[in-house]
């Protein structure tokens, strides 16, 4: 269990920046891309997922959350007509990741099913400049003294220090760069889903794990500040509320708290819409709440699309 982003920051030697990086914000704000032209399609897919995609009165979260995701990805793919390099992407499902590193005197490992991963033929360029990376040397990581930052982590015997990017990154695989991880918290029962803070921590740990495994595959196991940082994005949703993240691995020298830190940009708790009314609410024969989607947030959709386009546009 990952209780929170603060702990994940310590484990991954990472500095947090609130909001999305300028490179992504610039895509959102660029009128030449015509992102607003796709807003009506996005509203339609929300209605499709929440109101129409079932024979029941209302679809369950375990149904509408994956449906919404697939439909949003379909809208993103429509941009490949304008940007052909977007077609050089591949979604990998149910793949496992393993990454091992040492933090202070503790051997740590993140491993397991890593969400849905979109791979690309080319890496996302670094989003922080060399000056911004060097400036992270001054950042002081939060400590949890007298509580150990690993207090609730599962202890296991590690017989092999794995750094495995999964079957989808074997030698010769053309889509060899991790681009964006997608986590769908689609369990119908609330207690079976990660809370938003837990989800963000999970997103950070697996974005870091994928970046670290890729960096070690490219540059070997020797701890070092990377000449070419590795960027991995992450998007999490329960079918309504979205979490957006851009992670940049600047260093694999993770043992001490000194020196260059990694960076993560997080945009938290963004609703795609406020409410889905599957059947009208009627009081005294008067419709008080009509069926439909209310409070659609176009900026949340644009953020999803901008992260998809990032690295190409």
From TrEMBL:
GO biological process, one term: translation
InterPro entries found in the cross-reference section: mtLSU_mL37 (IPR052482), Ribosomal_mL37/mL65 (IPR010793)
Subcellular compartments: Mitochondrion
Gene Ontology molecular function, alphabetical: structural constituent of ribosome
GO cellular component term, pick one: ribosome
Domain of life according to the entry: Eukaryota
Principal subcellular localisation of the protein: mitochondrion
Keyword 4Fe-4S: no
One Pfam family recorded for the sequence: PDCD9
Record's keyword terms, sorted: Mitochondrion, Ribonucleoprotein, Ribosomal protein, Transit peptide
PANTHER family on file: LARGE RIBOSOMAL SUBUNIT PROTEIN ML37, MITOCHONDRIAL RIBOSOMAL PROTEIN L37
Family stated for the protein in its record: Belongs to the mitochondrion-specific ribosomal protein mL37 family.
Protein name: Large ribosomal subunit protein mL37
Encoding gene (name): Mrpl37
